[in-house]
Amino acid sequence: MTEQQLPAWADPSVSPAALDAQGVSRRGLLRRAGLFGAAFALGGAATPAVAAAGRGHGGEDPRLAYLVGDHHVHSVYSHDAKYTFAQQARAAARYGLDWMVFNEHSNFGHASYGAALEHKEILEARAANPRQLIFQGLEWYIPAAEHCTVFAAPGPHEVDLLTRFELAYDGKLLGYTEGAAGATDTARNEAHAVRAIKWLAEQRRSGYVDDVLVLANHPLRLGIDSPHELRAWRDAAPEIVIGMEGAPGAQGAAIPGRRGATSVRGEYENKPSAQSWAGYPADAYLTYGGFDWATATVGGLWDSLLAEGRLFSVTTNSDNHRTVFDTWKNGDWPAGQNFDNTGRLPDPVNTATPQAGSDFWPGQFSRTHVGVTRYGYRAVMTGLREGRVWLDHGHLLDGLEVRLRREHGGGRGVTLGGRLRVRKGEKLILEITVTSASRLNPQGILPQLAHVDVIRGAVRGAVSDRDTWRAPDTKVVSTTDVSGRKGTYTLRVPVAVGDESCYLRLRGSDGNRNGTGYLGASVDPHGPIPHEPGNGDPWADTWFYANPIFVDVVG
Fold it and tell me: Which of 35, 45, 483, 534 has a 20 to 30 A CA-CA distance from 233?
């Protein structure tokens, strides 16, 4: 594999004068974490150091730098996309991404031809873009359910793993799509999805690949990912199935005047079908501030999973197929060729006329920030697995650092995805360090954070009803108005330890659109709300979310 170079903002040999405002800001964050220069040297395939006394043992987590990425990007190797690898990589670099995953749709043409051809171009893209971490992945059609991102660490078997997996376990290729309650094939199909995840876990355990991860994509778009299926995938291999998209791609779908009067951010424009899980309300098929209902609802499905005391991460991404206002169209097929017999679309052609599209370029609007202690592919994957993740839309923040520590003598404490073991009655401090946006975003707006919310939920252990989507003891417990605050500042929120274990998570927005949350004002007095159909300017309604920190009460 081509030797990687540090991103320009992290490379001491790159003069600060050569960086834009965002790069300067990110370099400052890296210096503050004590990871600049040799301390953040190329990690390659090395596993980042983790404090031995850390997670689950009341110790401290290391200082982190955050790498910005997108795990859901398509190219000419997806039957319904458009762009070349080079176009996507250039766009990702332009918008500041450090890592990205090309996860092409499962398809007969892809499995037979495209995956191997794609891998050659992946290697070329890595060589041509040495300051980016470029993963090869697959968008898996889950038997009886929706889609997932599956991706592996670079290595000699990365493409073979994905191809074997696609042929043996893809619901679309096998015809294992039935998921309706009570249908003849549903139980078989759901069981096959679990077997697929266990197979991936075995490939990692055996060392066939260094690492592999799975994230559920757009979980409530069709309502066919039931709560019991999400739990079954997680439980089959929690080190592999680490979370879900908290916000889908296609965030430009409802820009006024683009796609029509019924369009919704994320293309969440569906109604329940026979395949949908009947327990989801009709409102679950919408996005809220651009986020999936499962994530945006305080006390909802995401919280129900977290209330079991187990980490389940959220991410955001572009799901880029066709960029809004872009002028490229798909190229024409040569005679006798199609996707099924080539596995690759013809290169696109520039028309100079805006084409239809719902998506933003990778990094243009949606960003997933992953905490690492050194640079490299496995460092990103380990950061994702550890849950050191926060996400924003519209470049709302330059940086976010979260620490939960004891009020007295607490040291650095633990960070996102971590666990702090405490005794009943201990006093804790949640420290939230925000670095405000330092430059105009791609839309020409200087984002301004308006508020930071702390959400707290009780941890009650495994649920008896695997289809529950409620966490009745989760609610917003603190809101801090930060309107007008600039630069880097730290909020300190006292946390009282009661009889029960709990978790804390964060959310905030530009303050432009909010209202009573889905489960009522006593749970969420000013949460994200749906936009009216056809009128969903994403740049005017931006949010950040952060993964939880768990508090384990031991006595």
Answer: 45
At 543, which helix (H) or strand (E)? strand 543-553
Residues 6+ positions from 160 with CB-CB distance below 8 Å: none
Is it the case that residue 454 has pLDDT exceeding 90? Answer: yes
The DSSP-derived string for 108-171 is HHIIIIIHHHHHHHHHHHHHH-TTSEEEEEEEEE-TTS-EEEEEE-SSTTHHHHHHHHHHHH-H
pTM passes above 0.85: yes
- The Cα–Cα gap between 44 and 1 comes to 10
Q: For 324-345, give the secondary structure using H, E and C.
A: CCCCEECCCCCCCCCHHHHCCC
Indicate the pairing of strand 366-372 with strand 389-393. Answer: antiparallel
Label each residue of 363-386 as H, E or C.
CCCEEEEEEECCECHHHHHHHHHH
Handedness of CA 113, 115, 120, 125 (dihedral sign): positive
How big is the chain by its Cα radius of gyration, in Å? 22
Question: What residues contact residue 178 under an 8 Å CB cut-off, 6+ apart?
Answer: 144, 184, 185, 186, 189, 275
Report the interhelical angle of 227-236 vs 186-205 (nearest 10°): 30
Residue 337, φ and ψ in degrees, nearest 5: -105, 145
Please give the DSSP secondary-structure letter assigned to residue 323: B
Per DSSP, 297 falls in state S
State mean pLDDT over 130-146.
Answer: 97
Q: What is the pLDDT of residues 16-58, one digit of tens each?
A: 999 999 999 999 999 999 998 888 875 433 333 333 334 444 4
